[in-house]
Every structure is written in C-alpha cells, then in structure tokens.
Design brief:
With about 850 residues, the chain is α+β, with helices and mostly antiparallel strands. The protein has 12 helices and 47 strands. Helices cover about 20% and strands about 30% of the residues. Bound molecules: ligand BES and manganese (II) ion (MN). Pfam families: M20_dimer, Peptidase_M20, WD40.
Length: about 850
C-alpha cells in the first residue's frame, strides 16, 4: 500500500484500494493487469486472469466477478447509454455484456487468429463494435446485422483453433497469457463472426494499441464519426466510420506521424487528442487543425494510461507513478502502484471528483481529487464521502489515553471533534475537571420540540496504542486506508467510526429539520484506561447533560461478519496489581538460594495458583453468590443464535463457548514482572503480577474487589512468608444487562431490519445498492451479549436513571485493540442510517 507521504500537496488525500486478485497485494507482479473504467456508481476492472470485477463505488464491495475471457482483459468500454460493456482480451475475442444483468450478450471474433485484441470501441450511431489487434488489423462488427448474417460454424471459434503463433508483449512488456479456453456454450452469448469485408489488414505497421471514437461535429461531417487509432509504429491514424450500401466501412482519412515511439494510449478532450508514448512523451494534437500543438516529456518511462478532464492531464506510468499536468506543466505526481499503471479513469461520485487507477500490483486504487482541485466539500450536503474525509482526519489524531506523551494529541482530537459538532449546529463544551485526564467532548443538539425526551450518546475518542504490533500492520495505523470495502486504522471501529456515524446522522436530521427531540453527545477520552476521572467529570457537569430518557452506545461487534446484532449485555471487570517484595536487594541464586529463602516470585506464583482450581473455578469466597440464573427468554435467544450458527460460518464460535463468555465470570493472569527481568542466576527481590476478573450480573464489582483483597491477604498469611504484600485494585466496573424489551431496543431493532433489509431480500447487483440482504432466515437482529466491558455504562444508567442500549456497528473480524483494526464501509454507512431512524423514532419513556 502507498504511504501517505508519497501523495504530495494533500492531493488525493486517501487511497482506497481494491484487490483484483488474491489475498496479498505483493504477489505476482507481472501477472496481473487491470483495466478500470468507471460507470456511475460502479467500477469495472479487467484482470490478467480474464475476469471482469465490478465493485460498488459507494462501499467498495465486490458486486460481481465475471469469468469473461480466456486471456488477459486488455480493454473495456461502455456504450454511450451505459447499458452495454465491451471487453477485449488476449483470447482474440470481444465480448459484449449487459451492465444491468451482467449477462454476456455477444461474443465477437475473427475467422483467423488475430492475436491479442488490445482495444475496443463502440459506435452507437452505427451500432458497430470496432477492435484493434496484435496482428495490426482493424476489424468491426455491425450488430444490427447479427441476426441477418448466417450463424457461424463453431469450427472457427478462437478457442478451438490449434495453432497460435502469437506470443505478445503488450503495453509495458506484459505478456498476455492465454489459458486453455473452454468450449463455447450458451453462457458465451450469441457467437458473432467478423466478416472478411470488415477487416483492414495492416492498419498500422505495428500493433494497434489504442483507439477512440470522435463524435465532435466540428471535426467530423454530420453523422460521420472518426476513429482515431494509435499504433506500435508510432503513427496516429484517422478513419472515417461510415455506412455505404448498407455496410459499415472504415476509410483512412488522415495520419499523424509522431516519430518512432509506439503510441500506447490516447485520450480525447473536445478536439484535442493526447497520445502517451513509449519512453514517456505525451503529444497533443489538434484534430481540427490536424496539427501537433505540443509535445512534452511527462516521464522517463512509458506512459501506459491517460485520462483528461477538469483542465488537467492524468498520466499513469510504467514505474507506478500517477502524474497530473496542467498543459505541459507538472502539478503533482506520486507513487500510486508498485509497478505499471495500466488504466486511468476520471469520474465523479456524489459530487466528488476521483481518479481511478489500475495497476499490475493486483490493485485498483481510487484517489480523491477534491483537495487537489481545492474543492471544499459543501457543508449542507453531508455525503458519505464527507463522512469519510472527517473519519480520515479523526483517525490521524493519536489519541492514545494510556500514554502521557499523547496527551496533546488527545486534546487536539477532542477539540477537532468538538468543532465538528459545533459546525453541525450543536452547543458544545470541552469538559475537563482534572489536568491529568483527557477532556471529554460535550455536544447538545436541540430538537424542534423542547421539553420532550432527551437521549444521550456515549462514546470514546481515545484508542489503545498501535506500536506493540506495529510490524503486523499492513498500513500506517494512524492514517485511514481503504481496501476492499474496509477502512483500516487504529480506532476506526473502537470507537471513532461509530461516533462519526452517529454525529453525521444527527447532522442529517438537523440539516433537514427533522430532529424533534434533544440529543446529547458525551465522548470521553479515558475509556481505554478504565474511564479514569469520568465519575467526577460527569457529576461536575450533570446540569449540562440534563434529564435523559435513553442512553445509546455503539462500541461492540457482531457475532460474525454477516448478521446484524444488538448487544444487551457486557461483563464487568476488576483489575488488580499484586506485588510481593523481600525488602532486600536481588540475590544470587547459587550463593543465596536455599530452601530457607522465601522468594517473592515463588510466593506470588503460589498465591495466584490458589485463585482458581484446575477447572477454573474461582476460590474467592462468595464469588458466585449473586450470579443470575439462566432465564427462559435467554434460552430462546441462545436458541435463535444457534439456529443462525448452524448456517455454517467458520467464523462462528459455538453457542456453548458464547454462553460461557457472556454469562460466566472469568479470571485472567495478564503477566508477571520482576526486579531482575528474568536473569537465570538471580532471585528477584520484587515480583509483580497483573490480573483481572470479568464479572457477570449480578456480581457487584466493588464487592468482588473487596472479597478478592481479603482472599489474597489471608492466602498470603497462610504462606508464613516474611515478604511484603502490596495489592492495588483498579476502578471496579460493574457488569451491564440491558432490557431488550424496552422501547429503545425496539426502535433499534426496527431500524436495523429496515436498513439492513432483513425482511426483504434485495438483489446485491442493484445499482448503488449497499443495503444487502444478509440472510434468508434472519428476520430480526440477533440479540447478543459480550465478554468485554465498558466502564461507565452501568454508572450512567444509575446516575441518569435511564436504560442503555448498545448498537454494534462492527463485524467480528474488526480486530479492535489488535493490528489492522478495521470497519466495513457498509457497516459505517448503515450505522449512520440506523442512527438517523433511531434518533427520529425514539419513543417517549
Ligand atoms: N469496545 C470495548 C468494549 C468491548 C470489548 C465490547 C469487546 C465488546 C467486545 C471497549 O473499548 C474496551 O476496550 N473496554 C475495555 C475496558 C477496560 C479498559 C476497563 C475492556 O473490555 O477490556
Ligand atoms: Mn476498546
């Protein structure tokens, strides 16, 4: 992946990559080739393996993958009405596809071997497909004749011909591999054979690499289109495409001699023709005047792809650099792909301009040009694109609460978030009661009807560090990267993405004047450190928060990657740090070690070993006293879950282990440290261990904490050790159990059903569709609990006397707290929609 430093001038501030092939981007460098045009809300890429992959521009998720050719796909183009897609390939075939159904409509080929088909275009005026081939020919097929001419005999189909003498080197020296084609069948669409009279042999003295059709009336006679072709011979040729006596014909009408370097790619803008050449020059021709108006050296290596628009020329080179020129002046350039940039396209999605590039590194990359053009995203139309830009910024603050060196980053992150809320129209404050702790962000959005119910959204902008496992991150943790429909970055799922989904949901409601009742955001900066200082901060500012009816959180995950869930339970936690010290210095184990020595570490290990027995039963007296019995309703939910589980996703943990994680307490030993750091001849004078209990309803954290303290003291007393014991207890966190039957959960459930389309399966191939049907059998979200903890959730419920609910935004594979933390775009966008509905529809309590 590209590091952000290589994207200059803040241009293209975020790369979204789509993998065309395989799991890793670093494999098979010369073996994957992409051609990537863009159609409205979809991106089409042709691969070296002969596939055409279609992605949603909105979510970057794969919509479909067509096994399109038995050779590398070398060119793609659309009909002007965008209904049809034309693909050409190393298998000597041009295929015509429906962009709606993705069916193959026709398969067009020549009667003899023409080698690779490098380029294809389509004249809608004459309903004619034109192709340029490796054997230097131009060929065409008039689709209006397809049912008139006799059906071709299968014998001449390229996949059945035995001798092939072409072993091509395409643009950039790529060898187009041809796999053994299967026999043509129904799936191939109607087979159409090019007639002998529709061929111009030796159209160039070299491969026909690229072509384009000019419709400009100032240049062409009325109703006559001109085809422009670029060849391996360095020539650009013009051809009139006409109908004569009912037959389409091509006649050469001009030639531009450009020197010897092959013309590898051309792009047209009005009457200007841009030709990218071998060795890095770009020629600019005026088609009206038939004059070359400029030549400039754009790179030291081959120009493999060009796109022209917005007054700029975009070039992709053979060493992976994307370059932007204004006339001949280079405005910026950056490393976009590992090696070859085989395709470049310009497009706009939701008002944002993009450059899309396809490389031979198995990636299609999407570059946001808004910053480069200096276009500020409008504040009224808060598209998902604007949400992404905000998230990208939010992630860039290293808001690690557990390290003092990040205090300033935390303050800046908080202040940025506050300003975002302010821009959305909230009344905001940075709340801080103690200079040692990060501030919390307070924002209050006023509803249209004051005095009604008021809801609270609680979240945390702080994150856990990302340097413990830094080399396992595939991209820089504190910059947002998009790949294959996922956003990667520390905190993207826990909890920055969900916070922004909720914030933008409110912004939508405020902008459209649909916010009826007040919504308060309280986003703290110490959650990952046990919400240090939160109680005081909350109590000091209770007047700001007011009378709250419902508490909403979005800081948990689905059970697997497919089924939307609602979380109604979290465990509590008690952390403890226990030290045993001898009061002496470290000693030599040979000189001083004897059976009379009470080693602190041995004491500590013995002590810890007494906490649980061999079946993990906790020996602390009273530990299990208040655990709730398993209810009937709970049993039903587990039933629903195991039914869903049985649909067989490998990611699913089994229901028994879930049950034990969600409703059974546990004890964990996190790690021992000693004063000697483990040197093999030393008896450390001090040993420390960090442990924790996860607790379930109705264990009271404070009671468990005290019971544990007593237990450790009395067990230590039994050791009769002269050493000193020290116990430090963390802030106790109570377990939490929501009420899935209350109005908050019901509203959440209805919103989830609607946004995720749980009741009405939707075809995923529908244009611009990111709400997908997730399961035939899932009619409502799964109600789940979690093994993790959120320190303040129970506290907030008690303080505000209001029930809380958790909307899990992320999937099981989000990897929160771990390397390559991520969040699926679809989940982010749907969370925004869900919050929108929920904030609108919440009932009075
Ligand atoms: N989002 C998590 C809580 C969580 C974890 C929910 C796993 C669902 C599944 C939260 O940010 C977190 O990390 N909590 C800590 C709390 C601790 C620092 C007191 C935890 O659970 O360890
Ligand atoms: Mn966390």
């Amino acid at each position: 992946m590209t590091d952000p430093e290589t994207t200059p001038d803040g241009a293209t501030n975020m790369r979204r990559a789509l993998r065309t092939h395989g799991q890793d981007t670093d494999q098979q460098h010369e073996n994957n080739q992409s051609t990537a045009p863009v159609l409205g809300s979809r991106i089409f890429a042709g691969t070296q393996g002969g596939e055409i992959i279609v992605w949603s521009f909105e979510t970057y998720e794969e919509i479909t993958r067509l096994q399109a050719h038995a050779g590398a796909v070398l060119g793609l183009c659309f009909s002007p009405d965008k209904d049809r897609l034309f693909s050409c390939a190393g298998d000597a075939i041009v295929n015509v596809w429906s962009t709606q159904s993705f069916d193959r409509l026709y398969s067009i080929y020549s009667t003899f071997d023409i080698g690779d088909v490098f380029c294809v275009t389509y004249s809608s005026l004459l309903d004619t497909v034109i192709l340029g081939a490796q054997n230097t020919s131009l060929q065409w097929y008039d689709l209006s004749q397809k049912d008139i001419v006799p059906k071709p005999s299968l014998k001449s189909h390229p996949s059945l011909r035995r001798h092939r003498f072409f072993d091509s080197r395409g643009p950039g020296g790529i060898t187009a591999t041809r796999s053994n084609a299967a026999q043509p069948d129904d799936e191939d669409g109607q087979l159409l054979e090019i007639r002998k009279s529709s061929i111009i042999q030796y159209a160039h003295f070299g491969y026909v690499y690229c072509m384009a059709l000019v419709k400009s009336p100032s240049f062409s006679e009325e109703n006559v289109e001109t085809l422009v072709t670029g060849g391996g011979d360095g020539a650009i040729k013009l051809w009139k495409v006409q109908q004569r006596d009912g037959l389409v014909s091509l006649t050469q009408s001009g030639v531009f001699e450009n020197g010897d370097e092959s013309i590898l790619t051309i792009a047209l803008k009005d009457t200007l023709l841009y030709a990218g050449k071998l060795e890095g020059e770009i020629d600019v021709w005026d088609l009206d005047a038939r004059q070359r108006i400029q030549t400039f050296k754009a790179a030291d290596v081959d120009i493999l792809s060009l796109a022209v628009g917005y007054g700029y020329v975009f070039a992709g080179t053979a060493n992976g650099r994307a370059k932007i020129f204004e006339r001949h002046r280079r405005k910026t350039d950056w490393k976009a792909h590992d090696e070859l940039i085989l395709a470049s396209a310009l497009t706009e999605n939701n008002g944002t301009p993009y450059l899309v590039t396809g490389g031979n590194d198995n990636c299609v990359a999407i570059w946001n040009l808004a910053d480069f053009f200096g276009k500020q995203p409008s504040l009224t139309r808060q598209s998902n694109e604007v949400l992404l830009q905000s998230l990208s910024r939010f992630i860039s603050f290293r808001t690690v609460s557990s390290r003092n060196e990040y205090n300033e980053d935390c303050r800046q992150g908080a202040s940025w978030l506050r300003n975002l809320f302010k821009r959305f129209g909230a009344q905001t404050e940075l709340l801080r009661t103690d200079s040692r702790h990060n501030p919390a962000v307070y924002a209050c959005f006023k509803g249209k009807y004051p005095g009604g119910k008021r809801s609270l959204f609680y979240g945390h902008y702080d994150v856990v560090p990302a340097d413990n496992d830094q080399d396992r991150w595939k991209t820089e943790p504190f910059s947002l990267h998009g790949r294959d429909g996922y956003l990667y970055g520390r905190g993207v799922s826990d909890n920055k993405g969900p916070i922004l989904a909720a914030a933008y949901a409110i912004a939508d409601l405020v902008a459209t004047q649909q916010l009826r009742s007040d919504v308060v955001f309280l986003v703290e900066g110490e959650e990952e450190s046990g919400s240090r200082g939160f109680e005081k901060l909350f109590k000091d500012n209770k007047h700001l928060i007011g009378d709250i009816s419902w508490i909403l959180l979005a800081n948990s995950y689905w059970l697997n990657n497919d089924f939307p869930c609602l979380t109604y339970g979290l465990r509590g936690v008690v952390h403890a740090t226990i030290s045993i010290e001898s009061g002496n210095t470290d000693m030599h184990s040979g000189v001083n070690g004897s059976n009379a020595t009470h080693e602190p570490l041995k004491d500590l290990v013995t002590l810890i070993s007494r906490v649980t027995d061999s079946s993990n039963h906790v020996s602390v007296p009273g530990f299990y006293d208040h655990i709730r019995p398993f209810t009937k309703q709970e049993e039903q939910w587990y039933g629903a879950i195991s039914e869903t589980l049985s649909q067989g996703d490998a990611m699913f943990p089994n229901p028994e282990s879930l049950k034990s994680k969600w409703r059974e307490p546990s004890f964990t030993v996190h790690g021992f440290t000693t004063s000697s750091s483990g040197v093999a001849t030393v008896i450390p004078h001090r040993a420390t261990v960090k442990v924790s209990f996860r607790l379930v309803p109705d264990q009271e954290a404070i009671e468990i904490s005290e019971a544990f303290y007593q237990f450790v003291q009395s067990e230590f007393a039994n050791l009769n050790s002269p050493n000193k014991l020290h116990i430090e207890l963390g802030d106790p966190v109570d377990p939490w159990l929501g009420d899935p039957n209350n109005g908050l959960y019901q509203t959440l459930e209805e919103a989830i059903i609607e946004v995720w389309g749980l009741q009405k399966p939707v075809s995923p191939a529908k244009e611009g569709q990111h709400r997908r049907s997730v399961s035939k059998s899932l009619r409502r979200p799964l109600y789940i609990r979690e093994g993790g903890s959120i320190p303040v959730i129970r506290f907030l419920e008690k303080e505000l006397n209001a029930p809380a609910a958790q909307l899990p935004c992320g999937q099981a594979s989000d990897n929160a707290h771990l390397e390559n933390e991520r969040l699926r775009l679809t989940n982010l966008y749907n969370a925004r929609e869900i919050f929108k509905k929920v904030f609108m529809d919440l009932p009075d309590r």
